# Entry
Amino acid sequence: MRYEKEETSATTKLTYLLIGGGIGAILALLFAPKSGQELREDIADATRKSLEKARSSRTITGKSRRIL
# Structure
C-alpha cells in the first residue's frame, strides 16, 4: 500500500508540474509581441507538443510499472 501512495503522490506532482508549465507557456505566448494569427498558431503548436509529451511520459510510466 505504501508504494501506491508514493506513486500517486508522484503522479499528482507530475500532473501539477505539467499544468503549471502549460499555463506558463501560454502566458509567455500571450505577452510575446506577435500578431493574433501567429499567436494562435504558437498556442496550438505548444498545446500539441505538451499533449505529445504527456502521452509519452504516461507510456513510459506505464511501462516502468509493468517492469516493477
About this structure: The mean pLDDT is 78. The chain is about 90% helix and 0% strand. Helices lie at 2-30, 36-67. The two ends are 14 Å apart (CA to CA).
